[in-house]
Design brief:
The complex is a heterodimer. Chain A is built from three helices and two strands, in the order H-H-H-E-E. By secondary structure, chain A is mainly alpha-helical. In chain A, helix 1 crosses helix 2. Chain A starts with a helix and ends in a 7-residue tail after the last strand. Chain B is built from 16 helices and eleven strands. In chain B, a hairpin with a 5-residue loop joins strand 10 and strand 11. In chain B, helix 2 packs antiparallel against helix 3, helix 5 runs parallel beside helix 6 and helix 10 packs across helix 12. The longest helix of chain B is centred in the C-terminal third of the chain and has 22 residues. Classes of the chains: A mainly alpha, B alpha/beta. The interface between A and B is large, with 52 and 72 residues.
Chain lengths: 95, 494
Amino acid sequence: MSVDTATVKKVASLARIAIDDAAAERLVPELNNILGWIEQLGEVDTQGVEPMTAVIPNTLRLRDDVVTDGGIRDAVLANAPAAEHGFFTVPKVIE
Amino acid sequence: MPALTDLGIREIRDGVRAGTFSAREVAEAFNAAVAAAKPLNAFLVETPDHALAAADAADAARAAGETLKPLAGVPIGMKDLFCTKGVTSTAASHILEGFTPPYESTVSQKLWDAGAGMLGKLNMDQFAMGSSNETSAFGNVISPWRRSDGGNAALAPGGSSGGSSAAVAARIAPGATGTDTGGSIRQPAAFTGIAGIKPTYGRCSRWGVIAFASSLDQAGPMARDVRDCAIMLEAMAGFDAKDATSLDLPVPQWESMLDAGLKGKRVGVPKEYRVDGMPAEIEALWQQGIAWMKDAGAEVIEVSLPHTKYALPAYYIIAPAEASSNLARYDGVRYGLRDLPDGANLQQMYAATRAEGFGEEVKRRILIGTYVLSAGFYDAYYTQAQKVRTLIARDFEAAWEKCDVLLTPTAPSAAFALGEKQADPLAMYLNDVFTVPASLAGLPAMSVPGGLSAEGLPLGLQIIGKPLDEQGVLDAALAIEERAGFAARPQAWW
């Protein structure tokens, strides 16, 4: 499978990364080089092999359903690029 | 007496306990060494007051006759991937520039609880993606080592924990934290002539460690020798309810159990690690390592890990896939950089912010990850890679029926010059060929210095162990260390 500029732009848009035409052009051979290399995995017979879900056997723990923090609005907002009235602010989403 | 900065973790700990010197003297010596080593670009932030405060606490405890904590009086460097309360933590990325966590990572908190102080935050490859430190947004770390050819080529300290490896090798920190996703503790340790261990996945909490690939990321210590690594790992490891992948097991007393006698142990040598184009000096070092293992009383046997050649391509599907998901959180809303072009809507703000904030390698991996996870390709790439990962883990399980630990080289070469491999991402990825398989299988693995290359640069040997057998790894590494007698160190030019 090889990618072209249109595919690179589509993937970049899915990844929410703005790229211009020049960057897309540059990425095409780079990504094809890497994708061509990882395609050798296709030659491994994995019939009947379960995909790994946990690298070290471990039990899935559930935490008690209790509040462990809260009332830390200032700490939550402390690193916000923009905050107003105790909220994160972003560009208008709904006209 | 040697300079205080020539002392390792154990010597500092024991010296402070015995009153040979004060913790404050140690902290002051290292703070001064850090301040004088700026040309290495190893530290992104210096925190001399943190180191001094921990030192004063240690000295006060001693004066009061209290039992000193395990790392009392020991100042360390902290990889910038660990969130540290009130101290900027950026993962060496522009997108997190100025981010000041209001919380402390579990591993760093454990180290402070053990009495350690922080010299500063260490430079690294951006989001731990890289093998040479050339992806940091704040300039690459320069290895303290120089080739013996008389040239002054700036060399890579390895990556991603290159600030950590450079700081320890240059004697500006007695120990440092690292994180290892595909070899990011072991390869830089090998490049700079120090020791470093990645414990079993789940030994160290990942809470508060900026995520790269969650099923692989694991913290570990980097220090001058095996014993210092054991001491530091004891302080870092342990169950953490805040990390769902943390293992609920007691932390063994690795240091007191250290035993370099390998009588009755079986050391496996995987034949598939003899890769095409491997330099003769790497092969020679490996043979020397085999001889050392035998000298220590071990039986050395050849084993087969048939899926080894597929580990690296599987890794470069799985790690970018997880990275593309983990790094989705950097969108300019809650923290970090925001780039808001005039008239931009929310989607455009996300895209502009991420384009501006992420470095080229990070973007490349996010794009690969997004591609392999996208509809139509998920099974062909991601599911297939996870199946191959199962086969790689099974290879190791089969090997453990024949041997107790595995011995391999750590990296396929000595340190390369900065800029040498930057133009070809794939050539850079191949550097991790020996470290990635153990990462995919979640196994403990360690690099220990074995000797010098013809150019006078350090070469490392890697020990890979069974799940949870850090002791076996440390013991075998100690057996190598005792026989290698590696005493070379970089000459200060900075």
